[in-house]
Amino acid sequence: MHHLSPLRFFWVILRPRRATMAALLTVLVYASYLASMSADGFDQALSLILLTQLIVASTGYRDRLVRGHFDAILAGRRRREPVALAHAVLSMVPGLVLWLTFGAVQHLVTSHRSIAMMPGGLVTFAYASVVVWALSLRLGRNSGGVLWVFVAFVLAAAGKVHVLREAYGTSSASLMVTTRSIAAALAFPLVMLGNDGYVEPAVLLGVCTAAAVVLLSGIWMIVRFDAPLKDPA
């Protein structure tokens, strides 16, 4: 069993069902409609697709582990890093396809490069996806996305979103200012969709580094997870 491909295994376990595929297609069509209406509609469309990814990428891990769902891929395997990486990749692929397809459609319709394809768009998507994936590993399916949305609502209710946008939008004139910009991008990644998706190189590096750290932390958690099996409910 240890020769079973992690990618093939998790494709069977995590691939979207027909209802999910239909929902993703509906989101794509509606997002394209919103984007065609106005410039504000484009921002709403990207936010809608990102919200979809926050839920889709929160696949969970430990809850299925304790139910023995992963025994076939883990039994007799000395190294779990490939398993963890495959789980991460296939958790994020459906939303990535949706994001890139939307960007391609927008490019064809408007003849301009979509923000979804710009550094700000791609890094926003990657960072958010990795964070909700890692959060859901222990907390359970959909938990990462729900927690992310809750924090976003708290920030909005507290009037902090405008503050974060101002902190991010300040020119990177010093180390302190750059650090504030990175912190704002990490706290509220949607700020990176502004300015047509352009991100200062130092900020881009900081967010990419944070995403890599979160990804490695998630892989480490999967490698270290060892929970007693539960009887089926």
Care to describe what's here?
This protein is mainly α. The protein has one domain. The mean pLDDT is 84.
Q: Topology of this protein?
A:
Blueprint: H1 6-14, H2 18-37, H3 39-56, H4 62-65, H5 71-74, H6 81-110, H7 119-139, H8 143-157, H9 160-169, H10 175-187, H11 201-224
Helix pairs in contact: 1-6, 2-3, 2-6, 3-6, 3-7, 3-8, 6-7, 6-11, 7-8, 7-11, 9-10, 10-11
Compact summary:
The chain is mostly helical. The chain has helices at 6-14, 18-37, 39-56, 62-65, 71-74, 81-110, 119-139, 143-157, 160-169, 175-187, 201-224.
Helix content: over 70%
Shape: globular
Strand content: under 5%
Could you spell the SSE succession in H and E letters?
HHHHHHHHHHH
* Main beta sheet: none
Number of helices: 11
Overall residue-averaged pLDDT value: 84
How many strands appear in the DSSP assignment? 0
Q: List segments where confidence is low: pLDDT < 50 over at least 5 consecutive residues.
A: none
Count up the domains. Answer: 1
Q: Using only CA atoms, what is the Rg?
A: 19 Å
Primary descriptors:
233 residues, 11 helices, 0% strand, globular
